[in-house]
Fold this protein.
Amino acid sequence: MAAFYRILWFPPRRRAEEDRISTRCYAAAMESRTNNRSRYVEILHRAQDALERGEFEDAEALARRALMLRPESVEARQLVGSLLLDRGEFEQAAALFESVVAEVPDHLPCLADLGLCLFETCDFEAAEQYLARALRIEPEDAQSCYWMALAVERRGEFQLAERLFERAHLQDPEGYPLPTRISASEFEAVLTHAMDELPDEVAGELRNLRVSFEELPSEDILLDFSPPLDPCVFGLYIGVPLPDRRGDGPPRLPDEIIIYKRNLERLCSNAAMLKDEIKITLRHEIGHYLGFDEDELADRGLA
């Protein structure tokens, strides 16, 4: 028993010294936390300022530094996620937004951005769930209305999609212009006319090539690519480009170009613009059929 008490007992002077050491350590720790907090706030503000100036690389670097200082920060996670989203890193951005809404379930900006990211990665069901949560918080949020319109459009709910597009447009007319809709027969006529306008040297190469249009790309086609194809793609060439073919191969099924009607309609603010974009998209996909890469397409004005 005496040995037990001897282990726990400190001489009075030594105990006082340890109290002073403990007090100094605590004060140093609190000062360090205060300094880190001040530095975090400063860096986060600099990141936000850089973002407003359009200096995206600097903004991301600063936001990541802020996140290193305070990994638990909702603001830093949201900012890094937004910057990743802007450069198309949807999976990484989604992970950050998901971590925020797990802690703050009613965080509207992160719910809306998470829905966008999940849509872009073709997880349409999950996208719709998060966008629905955002719209329960704010039914007129323009971004949530727009991306929910895209989600329900894919399910064939075209009338509901139009109402959601209108709600987004009402809140932000410049950010979310209304789609320009034309009938299937009008779209086909414009596409046929665009084919007829092709230069003779190009038209002469279009052997065993089928050109068609659909409302939207199917999920199977989107997921056939890795990473998945952008659901808002305007057109797609499916086949083997002419330069890559072997003359001694077996007979081939026709290659195919598909133009996606509703995606193009959403891009365009009027019928004249839509007709031009149909022509541009067709020529772009024909360029892929002829074996041109993206740089060569750009050089020829087809990008």
In short: The chain has a mean pLDDT of 87.
